[in-house]
Amino acid sequence: MARSTTLTLLLITLGVGWAVSRSVLPARQASVAATSRSQRPLDGGREADSPAAVETSALQAAVDRLDAAFAEIWMSEGLEPATEADDLTILRRLSLALHATIPSLEEIRQFEAEPAEERLDRWAQAMLADRRFAESFAERMTRAFVGTQGEPFLVFRRDRFKAWWADQLAANRPYDEVVREVIASQGLWTGRPATNFITHSVTDGTPSPEKLAGRTVRAVLGQRIDCAECHDHPFADWKQSDFRGLAAHFGQVRLSPFGVEDDPARVFLADIGPRGQKRGVQAEVPFGEAWLPDSGTSRERLAAWSTDPRNRRFARATVNRMWALLFGRPLSAGAPWYADVDDLPDPQEPTSDEARSPLDVLADEFVASGYDLHHLLRVIAASRPFQLSSAVASAVSEENAGGSGSVEGTSSPQGGSTSADFQPLLDHWAVFPVERLRVDQVVGSMLQASSVRTIDLNSALMTRFLRFVRENDFLREYGDPGDDELLARSGTVPQALVRMNGKLVRETTEPNPFNATSRVGLASLDDEQLVEHCFLLCLSRRPTPAEQAYFSTAWDEEPPAGAPDDNDAGSEPKPRLSAAQRAQDLCWTLINAPEFSWNH
Amino acid sequence: MNFPHLPRRSHHMPHATSGCASVACSRRSLLGGFAAASTVAFSLPPLSARAAASRGAERPRSLITLWMAGGPSQLETWDPHPGGLIGGPTKAIATSVPDLQIAAGLPLMAERMDRVSLIRSLVSKEGDHERGTYFVKTGYRPDPTVQHPAIGAVLPYQLDGEAIAAGLQMPLYVSIGNGQWPGRGGYLGEKFDAFRVPSPGRGVDNLRADVEATRNARRLAGLELLSGTFRQGREGHPAATRHTETVHDALSLMASEHLAAFEIEDEPKEVLARYGDSDFGRGCLVARRLVEVGVRSVEVTLGNFDSHAANFSIHDRLVGMLDPAMAALLDDLRERDLEASTMVLCIGEFGRTPWINPLDGRDHWPSGFSAVLAGGGMPAGRVIGHTDPEGGDKPTDPIPVQDLYATILSRFGIDPAVELMTPVGRPLAISDGKPIGKLMS
């Protein structure tokens, strides 16, 4: 019984997949009729006087202000920004940022069938409305607030917390409200999922005020006060007494059979000596006393203070984090701070006429919009820095990409002369940064590249089940950076080995009826079309003429010189590989290329 | 963000192109335009052939950590208190050190206790598995603002600059067995993370291409072309070019002649039998073979010791794997004249409670647990401290975990007080402990 059900599922998947591959694959005659996917308002916002149009012009005004702030910096620094990236590159960035995967061939066809004007913003809106956005960002926000830990057992339900975040993000609830609920809510961790923020800190049955204060300041205000737990912060203005005063806001919280509660009679006892000496500490704030309301529980007061519009750290921290999720690199990582996402310097008081930094311009916009996250993400996505290419015309241009690197014009090692000119561009966002993708983005992209259809919540059960299993296997081998996923890092050798020889890549590229490689092999009319399909599938772009020429002819004809000939004397000519095998080899190569595992 | 500039000894700058082993060179020619210089510390030559062939005290030192995951009971291993309130059914036996008794489940080690030193009074404040593991692997308590490197990663970082620069073909730091939290490079970088070998003796995962050589060569040639295209105009993004070098290092590892060190098929049956028929035993044998080719630091995990219920049967089984494997390892190191250069450390994240709970289990106990140290220039036959036979939480002669690491680092010729710059710009001592006097004289 169970077996026949599985078989039926397989057949259905196969049949649907086949039908779709026929409609998606044939190259230019893509008659993409409206898809079956419901929540894609691809034609929304184009009628002149609709509220959407008004809203669009408000968006444009915000984008203009942000772009002006960057333009001013580029001018004063004497920087020539990179050229605009093409739309498919930007679509890939958007898809990786908002859905943690590359766009499917199906989506690329739909995108290209639309009129070019404003289609990127329409897609950004559609992607924000897609549940994949809520799910992916929920994981990011969950990491920011509670990390990756699964403990403490029983009182902490990370899955509930994350699912709750996904609902808030899908509904686009004002972000300040969401944060206040996280900090201050009461009740059971199962019924009121936001309270899991409190319970994630529980040790020996008691929430830890120190841990909660540290997390709050990092996730909500974008600063690090944890250092001040033991000593004064080396460069920001946080003192140990500030830390204890903030921690005391969590000093009245306790667990009862009714869940997380606040007991006004409790006094927070801070450790003040190495031998466990303790002292009662009053709840205080290190600045902005006027923002602290008089009434409410101590957590409610802290929540109101943290998210008060006058507390500019809140909007700056949020804007910086969202920027990081779109670019793979926080705004603070550039000039003048070179700081991690949660290590922002103190805000300066705004002077009236002086040019505001892009961070402050964006923060003001976020406050003015009523803490509208979707709006903020659309503004960033439509801004000039997000649209720029990650490549610049290089001064020392190698005559042939990948040619023998030994003779390189001047003797500068690894383009040393160019990097000096390049760094200011990177520091001021005049070129799009190249950053390594997160592991969930890599695995999402690998799985998506194995299918011509979009893999999402509407996908067949079998596809989603396979994705779940493969994702977990891959994560175990590839490694998860845990809480620090927004730190820059390079790849490792074990990761290269997993990409090259691992099970996931083998399973998703081998020619079988489920995989894109065999469908591409069947549906491509000639070698050139096969190469183009594979490039779109894996890299979301078409091959350059040089790449097309190489992969459709030279690559296939002659094995490269120096190939180990382990097959005897090699006298008998090998039969040509099948189209599906060629697609398999090409997809392997594309998936292992740097372009695949980096955001660019 | 710029990549952290860590202060290194001058020879650590990984740009040299010399020392191209023949196998690696043929890979490189295959890859044509791939940069010849390796910048990844991960794959290094193990020791130079001469150093690897050397023996005795002159040989560069290596560390093998036998990691007892889950927290082994001191009472069922190195610090039994039979007959009293807390001892349970575990019996003690005499050892080759006068007046020293250990648990009866360790008869082979009992005969060899004169070759090791024993600390029975380690103290920690971390009673959670993940935090305790972090503390005991790094010597630092978890800190949300910085990720400390495991001691196994610090050793190659401090000692193997030349090998790293020469671009060798084996990992420096290997973690064998299915440990949940293998040692990490922390602020030294991911390239110092332990290279994981989950199933010892069955080779290493993902080292074989899954198509025949001609197709694979073509795939790699195509990859070279694509890497070149992507590099165009992006020379200034430093990390993006590193991708290509990482691929190159992975290929070097796949072709390394030293990979045989991971295989034990050709070991005589008698040798396999001495180590015991367990993954842990095979892991210890692989560890010995890795040290022989010059790997600096190996961790072999045994566990799970987390015996909240059925403490005694769990320990019977696991201690039964530990005893032959550890004894065989010590014997082999001695026989091959690798004892003076190879330190063996047996430790877990904490001990277990003296009292026995209603499920016949013991719970977490960071206030008094044991570690065994052998070889690598450590004095032998010394015993430091013991836990309270009545179950109190104050062992005699308490030793903080960080002092253990200060001791080990000193024996490797590394000053534990040397400060490294962390990515947040805060200098941190490699260890903030003090070498243990009784093990330094």
Highlighted features:
A: 600 residues, mainly alpha, two-stranded antiparallel sheet, two-stranded antiparallel ribbon, 26 helices, 6 strands, globular, disordered N terminus, B: 441 residues, alpha/beta, Alkaline Phosphatase, subunit A, nine-stranded mixed β-sheet
Which strand-content bin applies to the residues of chain B? 15-25%
Average pLDDT number of chain A: 81
Characterize the overall form of chain B.
globular
User: In which range does the helix fraction of chain B lie?
Assistant: 25-40%
Q: Tell me which oligomeric state these chains represent.
A: heterodimer
Shape, principal axes of CA atoms of chain A: globular
Count of distinct structural domains of chain A: 3
Poorly predicted tracts of residues of chain A? 1-22, 26-48, 395-417, 560-571
Task: Give the CATH H-level superfamily of chain B.
Answer: Alkaline Phosphatase, subunit A
Largest sheet of chain A: 2 strands, antiparallel
- Helicity of chain A, as a percent range: 40-55%
Number of E-type strands of chain A: 6
Detailed description of the structure:
The complex is a heterodimer of chains A (600) and B (441). Chain A has three domains: 1-31 and 434-558 and 575-600, no CATH class; 36-129 and 321-391 and 420-433, no CATH class; 146-163 and 173-306, no CATH class. In chain A, 51% of the residues lie in helices and 3% in strands. Chain A has helices at 2-24, 51-77, 87-99, 105-113, 119-129, 131-146, 158-171, 175-184, 196-199, 209-221, 240-247, 298-306, 312-327, 358-368, 373-382, 384-387, 416-427, 439-449, 461-478, 493-501, 503-509, 516-523, 527-539, 545-557, 579-592, 594-597, and strands spanning 253-256, 259-262, 268-271, 278-281, 435-436, 598-599. Chain A has a two-stranded antiparallel ribbon with strand order 1-2. The radius of gyration of chain A is 27 Å and the shape is globular. With 441 residues, chain B is of the alpha/beta class. Chain B has one domain (14-415): Alkaline Phosphatase, subunit A (3-Layer(aba) Sandwich), CATH 3.40.720. The chains are: A mainly alpha (600), B alpha/beta (441).
